[in-house]
Amino acid sequence: MNKEEFVEELKKLKIEINETQLNQLDVYANFLLEYNKHTNLTAIKEKKLVYLKHFYDSLVLTPYIKPDQKILDIGTGAGFPGCVLAILNPKTYFTLLDSNNKKIKFLEELIKKLDLKNVELINIRAEEYVKKNLENFDLVTSRAVADLRILTELSLPALKIGGLFVPLKANITDELEASKETIEILGGQLETIEKYLLPYEKSQRTLLIIRHTRQTSLNYPRSYDKILKKALKNNNK
Ligand code: SAM
């Protein structure tokens, strides 16, 4: 997907992008590919695939992003989806979190280059950060980080009541089935499952819309070890 095709595909999603933002994405793609030659950030090596698999895929979240909101991207890596969304939504505040110091270093340089004022970078494990930032965000997202059950425990406690947890996933059926109790126990409610195909290569993607409807017990999130080992069951409440 070249730049012109990218703009055309965004139009189909009714996403507006201006010249400044297009230039910022171009700088982003070049810097990512350059940096990737010495530091492993992404398996993608071609610019047209950066536009398709990183930029377009990140921007499908656009309809859920509103001005003045606080958004948390857990395991942002090289900024997907959070940094791409921050470029197109300059009036929304983004916290991009990753435990990998090399990725945060890359993002520090990137946001300086792009002069982004609406991005905060946090180099810490999600479970530690969320424990100290309960009910703080309007929306939490995450792409390609962990199984839905694990992500749910990392994300729901960080959301204000009424906020949305919107993970980007490939195929979700089994993961969703295994996460239903966790979502319920942590005070979430699944509202929508949005399926779409990436243009050109037509691979399946899923956006889940899960609302934080009631307060999560202060026992969560647990340590990562415990989250991994013990799935939440209703009789553990
Ligand atoms: N979201 C990006 C994307 O879609 O390209 C990066 C995906 S990468 C496969 C997973 C990232 O999640 C890594 O950068 C890793 O360091 C981070 N990660 C995994 N578990 C984490 C945790 N518990 N806390 C913070 N970061 C985590």
Which regions are unreliable across 5 or more consecutive residues at pLDDT < 50? none
Bound molecules: S-adenosylmethionine
Number of strands: 7
Tell me the Rg in angstroms: 17 Å
Average predicted confidence as pLDDT: 95
Give the percentage of residues in beta strands: 15-25%
Report how far apart the termini are: 48 Å
- Helix percent band: 25-40%
Secondary structure layout plus pairing:
Blueprint: H1 3-12, H2 19-35, H3 47-59, E1 70-74, H4 82-88, E2 93-98, H5 101-114, E3 119-123, H6 126-131, E4 137-143, H7 148-155, E5 159-169, H8 173-185, E6 188-197, E7 204-212, H9 224-229
The structure holds S-adenosylmethionine.
Residues 75-77, 80, 97-100, 103, 125-127, 143-146, 224 line the site of S-adenosylmethionine (SAM).
Outline:
This protein is α/β, with parallel strands linked by helices and about 240 residues long. The chain has nine helices and seven strands; from the N terminus they run αααβαβαβαβαβαββα.
